[in-house]
Design a protein that fits this description.
Length: 370
């Protein structure tokens, strides 16, 4: 298929700049794949479209403070954006600054005002201890340039223990408003550090809504996929089949695999919370069935890197329903949604969402595809 088929024009005022309060007050477009019906609700109403025994599978990855600010030895300002850890002290990064060649040393500095995660978390997250404020000096040395214009950077010590003190939680490039509470760019159940962007479909859940759904007989299980920055990059190849899909770390734990097996055996549905959860489940499904066109009822636990690129024509083996946000044009996320909902139906839903004034992208409204 042509990448241009996944392009669309979105007025800038429809890109949500701030999260709505409360989280579950966002709008919800319910899309029925069988009959093609579109219904407009609010996210807090999602339980009306779920049945006792259904399983919601969410991504529990937590956004790390991946932006580091510093200066070169000559005094020039530098920004280092962590993308992927290659070794204990070596990272693939994006950098911003002048003349950042291999051999350049950067002294990382504590930001004057940090937009990183607060120390108070909801009951569904892990409470962190107060960050250490002593001995937080950090030096980075550029050791190589990458083919896509990034840099490989080696730090003088492990960087993860210092991120709460030195790092800033990144926001997507299309969000220009400062975030008053950095926890609003984390899901209420985020616990596994590793993403540089939030799995945004889960941002709509509140702890109270989760409790309400569980009382209703709907179960929750978790997978982990650490979201990379390539999530926001448009596909640049003329044909989507030629796009080199980025890889991300994914894990399907044994307890989630067992919950899916039980759900399928009971004739109930597995609903993925977000495209990241979809990719984890479908990656595991590929290794759990001999015929990729068969539905799998017994997913095997898995962990490792996934580069699964889901496009129209893909046969879903594990996922029965999906919660997702409204995605950027030409993005791999939009192509995944088109594969699940059908391209024509997805286009109609996006057109109606724009007509009805829905908010788009990370802090925007949601869609539930049944």
């Amino acid at each position: 298929m042509k990448t241009a088929e996944f392009d669309y024009e979105l007025p800038l005022e429809m890109i949500a700049q701030t999260p709505i309060e409360p989280r579950d007050g966002s709008r919800l477009l319910v899309l029925d794949r069988r009959g093609g019906e579109i219904t407009h609700r609010h996210f807090r109403d999602i339980g009306e479209y779920l049945r006792p025994g259904d399983l919601l599978v969410a991504n529990d990855s937590r956004v790390i403070p991946a932006r580091l600010l510093g200066r070169k030895e000559t005094g020039g300002r530098v920004e280092v954006f962590l993308l992927k850890r290659l070794q204990e002290r070596t990272w693939q990064t994006l950098v911003r600054g002048k003349r950042l060649r291999p051999g350049t040393r950067i002294e990382i500095q504590r930001p004057e005002s940090r937009n990183h995660a607060s120390q108070e978390h909801t009951p569904h997250t892990t409470r962190h201890s107060k960050p250490e404020t002593r001995n937080t000096s950090l030096t980075a040395t550029i050791v190589a340039e990458t083919d896509d214009g990034g840099r490989v950077v080696e730090f003088d010590r492990a960087v993860e223990p210092l991120l709460d003190e030195l790092g800033i939680v990144p926001l997507p490039p299309y969000i220009h408003e400062p975030l008053a509470d950095p926890e609003r760019y984390q899901t209420v159940y985020a616990r596994m550090q590793g993403s540089v962007a939030a799995p945004t479909a889960g941002l709509h859940f509140t702890a109270a809504l989760i409790d309400h759904l569980q009382v209703q007989g709907i179960r929750f299980a978790f997978v982990t996929l650490h979201v990379g920055l390539d999530t926001f990059r448009p596909v640049k190849t003329e044909r989507i089949e030629d796009h080199p899909m980025h890889s991300e770390w994914a894990e399907l734990p044994p307890e989630t695999a067992e919950a899916i097996t039980q759900t399928k055996a009971a004739g109930c549905r597995v609903a993925a919370v977000g495209t990241t959860a979809v990719r984890v489940l479908e990656t595991s499904a590929r290794f759990s069935v001999d015929d990729p066109k068969l539905e799998t009822r017994n997913l095997e636990p898995s962990r490792g890197w996934t580069d699964l690129f889901i496009t129209p024509g893909y046969h879903f083996c594990a996922v029965d329903a999906m919660i997702t946000n409204f995605h950027l044009p030409r993005s791999t996320l939009l192509m995944l949604v088109a594969a699940f909902a059908g391209k024509e139906l997805m286009d109609r839903a996006y057109h109606e969402a724009m007509t009805k004034g829905y908010r788009f992208y990370s802090f925007g409204d949601a869609m539930f595809i049944l």
